[in-house]
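Recall the central idea of this unit: under ordinary conditions, the amino acid sequence of a chain determines the structure it adopts. In this exercise we apply that idea directly, starting from the sequence alone.
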Amino acid sequence: MLADVLYPVPPYDRYRAFAPPAPAVVAMSDDLYLRQVCLAVSHLEPTVGDIADIMGLKVCFHDRSVARYGLENAVLPVGTTLLEVVAPIQGETAVGRFLGRSAGRGGYMMIFGCDDPGARAKHAERIGVRVADVIEQDGYHGVQLHPRDCRGALIEFNHTEHGHDLRGPYPPAGPNWTRAIDTSVTESLQAVEIQSPDAQDLAQHWGRILQCELRGTAAGADIELPNCTLNFVKGGIEAFTALTFKVHDVNDVCQSARDKGIEVYGNAFLLGGVHFRLVD
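Accordingly, the structure predicted from this sequence is:
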């Protein structure tokens, strides 16, 4: 039942007749881009291996610093955007509670690169969104916002020295992460989908947090970033529900998923708690 509520299929056509008016415009952000997405699972395997094998990706790093949150992780580059998978390694963790509430459905976090995470955190607090954690290490500054205030997923803003070079240093991906970039199967992450019973309201809320302009759509609203689109669509509960990847051959990737025993519907399949949607 939860899967039906959280993941209506198809995601867009059923709402096409009910297109809302274009949402209010907020200040446009020129420095913000999607740096990383994070999925949460009970155990890293078989999910990480399945993602790597099906999507033709390579693990670039296991970050031991996430152990302070009671977690282990694996990070895989999708072009110059990072896909992280985390799993709890002890009993009481925020990720474990998230998995309990969500029954393992829905992505966990979106991480946005920017010029000044501190200024963005102050803006978030002014509009009632609490700061949950601050991370400082070797030229890296990250600010995580409270997921209940963000709605749909945890939001992090971060900045790395020379971070606007998307192939430059990025501590959460390890010292040699670009060596693991493999675009022979999957070229890039194109879009992230976030569901809500009131998609336009959630999009406006995220637009205020991210200080980004919105674009009204048949399904709800979009936020266009330089390297990715955030799609807000109508659904039963608020959750980060899908990733859209540009691949070189949709049929080949779908067959790789079937070979793993994963059910494929159309050009998509469920993996790591979210739908992997494929375009070429």
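Residues 2-279 form a domain with the 2,3-Dihydroxybiphenyl 1,2-Dioxygenase; domain 1 fold (CATH 3.10.180.10).
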